[in-house]
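Note to self: keep these together.
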Amino acid sequence: MHHLRKILAIVAKDLAAELRTREMLGAMFVFALLVIFIFNFAFELRAENQRALAPGVLWVAITFSGMLGLSRSFIREKDRGSLEGLLLAPVDRGVIFLGKMLGNALFIAVIDFIVLPVFVVLFNIPVTALPPLAVIAVLGTIGLSGVGTLFSAMAVHTRAREVLLPVLLFPLIVPVILSAVKLSAAVIDNLPFAEAQQWLSLLLAFDIVFAVLSFLFFDYVVEE
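Structure:
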């Protein structure tokens, strides 16, 4: 309970800072909507079956907009000179990681739940698919924010941090994107659960394993 209060304090700090400026959520929201609208317009002109391509479009929007948020995860503290103060706070480094990860997951989830209804309407997806798509989005967001928080802490000390983060992160989150796209396609096509069970298992395994590994390695990353 003591650690939980510290984790929530870090989340509240990031949330309050973001609500004052709204620069990160605004950029993520606009980018995700632009991806959805542009691809929808392009597929209406050329694609014979745009619903077959819809899961990929959804996860391009989520992944790239999430990358914008992750790239800003530690930059605010770094630019204001408060990152060292955060790391010197009398709390375990794992608490800092969990607070940052939870905050990143929260920001990405907000965008997910705003974009999903727009996606369903534009790509003519049945409304009944919205709840399972939301669950898949949450699971994918956990995997993305877990590894992304670790690499954001690593990249923030470099000059090309906005470029370095995607280069480091994208190869690692391929299982998350692939699993999420396959699961989303199964939901949209109304396939039996058995046909998508292996992808759900892969996504859950990635979330658990890499969240734990990121938690364990965070202390070494920020020390460097």
